[in-house]
Amino acid sequence: MKRGIALLLMLAISIAAVLGGCSSNEQSEIKTITVTNNGWDSQMLHNEIAKFIVLNGYDNYDFQVSTGSSTMNWQAIIAGDVDLDIESWTDNVATYPEDVANGDIVDVGVLVPDSAQGLYVPRYVIEGDPERGIEPMAPDLKTVEDLKKYAHIFPDDEEPERGRIFGSIPGWMADEILYKKYEYYGLDESYNYVRLGSEAALFASLASAYNLGEPWVGYCYEPTWITGKLDLVLLEDAPYDPALYLEGKCEFPKQELKIVSSNKFAEKAPDLLEFFQKYKTGSQLISEALAYLDETGATHEETAKWFLKENDYLLDEWLPAERAEKVREALN
């Protein structure tokens, strides 16, 4: 009798050990995927869309973001500490061609086929707006260089005798290029270059000026909620020349927004690689989603779910059928 009880105890201990080992092994199989968060809304929305799909359509993955400047996060991808940069503005990265050639950065796919960035003004600054009783303020303003004639139209509240140009976000590579452009065209002689510190603050200043019908000139890019809602004009510049671009001496190129990865990602998550290679959207789709985010006050996570429900067909383009159905079940 005692021997039988002892055998049962030994069997129970063995089963517990096996189950405990399985649990430990299953836990160790969970891989953390880290993506960049460089601080702009469209990238944060893409991150939440990807996160929902990865966590609900696939097994054994965790999903995290690395928040920091685009320069810092780019170096983290090269080091292998970050896996992916979704909505990567690669033409803004001086070392991008060299990093790809060296195998430190891998092109995964094209997220958006074309996009724009540069210095924008509201259309009413140039053309006026009869419905709002706004007369043209700078009717001959067409190019960045033309701004030299119109500093008095864009006065700096703190220094009214000088104009004010709203720059890009500190830490963004576009800001370095734009500041060189500000100096190259001699705008530093009559304008102050103002950095507001965040995309939210920059867009708030533009929206406020627009609602009041006041002049505004500064950095913007597409796709964003604000370019989707407001009638803006991108100021012309010298034709794009890769030899001059990084010195601020020509226009920002119309560029493909890409998904790039570290050179370790393909081996780390081959099934996710297949998803991200197919993950494509467009400026109009994302602008609509960002407008929804702004108008409703929804979070990026809530907007991601709304986007996936509104554009259900994309799941079939991005995912194998069984994974698409798992994501749909999670959405419902």
How would you describe what is shown here?
The protein has 332 residues and is an alpha+beta fold. The protein folds into two domains: 30-114 and 256-331, 3-Layer(aba) Sandwich (D-Maltodextrin-Binding Protein, domain 2); 116-245, Glycine betaine-binding periplasmic protein, domain 2 (D-Maltodextrin-Binding Protein, domain 2, 3-Layer(aba) Sandwich), CATH 3.40.190. The protein contains 15 helices and eleven strands. The strands form four sheets. It has a three-stranded antiparallel sheet. β1 (31-37), α2 (41-57) and β2 (61-67) form a beta-alpha-beta unit. α2 packs across α13 (300-310), α2 (41-57) crosses α15 and α12 (283-296) packs across α13 (300-310). It is globular, with a radius of gyration of 25 Å. Residues 1-19 and 21-27 have low confidence and may be disordered.
